[in-house]
Amino acid sequence: MATEETRASEQAPAAEAAKRRGRPRSFDRDTALEQAVRSFWELGYEATSISDLTRAMGISAPSLYAAFGDKRALFDEVVAVYKQHYGGFLHRALAEEPTARRGVERGLREAATEYTLPGRPRGCLVVSAALNISPASLEVADSLREMRRATVRQIAGAIRADIASGELPGDTAADALAGYIGAVIHGMSQQARDGAQRTELEAVAELALKVWPGPAGGTAR
Fold first, then answer.
1. Residue-by-residue DSSP string for the chain
2. What is the pLDDT of residues 44-97, one digit of tens each?
């Protein structure tokens, strides 16, 4: 039969673990998550190690796992924060402007600004974070690829709405035009990471808009 001393010694680790679980976090979760955003944005998913993350976030590895789960789970949160605070400008422009052209024009101009703002990584995390990955991280690449495709589909939807309303000619190739705009935005992201300045990207945006079809029965604007 176990003695009282034996039972006490067996219960001590469990009690200590429970005590640790009950302690409040010694760091601000949102602040740490913001630093994780910048790490993944700058380095990409595969190149960002747990040690990179803990150093940037100012927390230990056990604290990271306890608060965010594994690296993939943390990255999913990072992408959500990025889209909400940094990368949602094109979606908002398409939703808020009265025509597809106005939405795309605003989105391209804002991309030139957002991708080159000082004090933060350049370009777009959704475009660049999974360019070079191993087979073990293919799900991450697939997830970001689907986000990019969803953006192109949104552009195409706005174009189709303008065709239906008579804003654009009926023979406008919505998918091709949307794909072209998507390619321009992705290219602007990469150029920003390569060091292009805002004015250079604004010139790219201006040139890209010249291919936009004119209104039905009119000329290009």
1. ---HHHHHHHHHHHHHHHHHHHSPPSS-HHHHHHHHHHHHHHH-TTT--HHHHHHHHT--HHHHHHHH-SHHHHHHHHHHHHHHHTS-HHHHHHHHSSSHHHHHHHHHHHHHHHTT-TTS--S-HHHHTTSS--GGGHHHHHHHHHHHHHHHHHHHHHHHHHHHHTSS-TT--HHHHHHHHHHHHHHHHHHHHTT--HHHHHHHHHHHHTTSPPPTTS---
2. 999 999 999 999 999 999 999 999 999 999 999 999 999 999 999 999 999 999
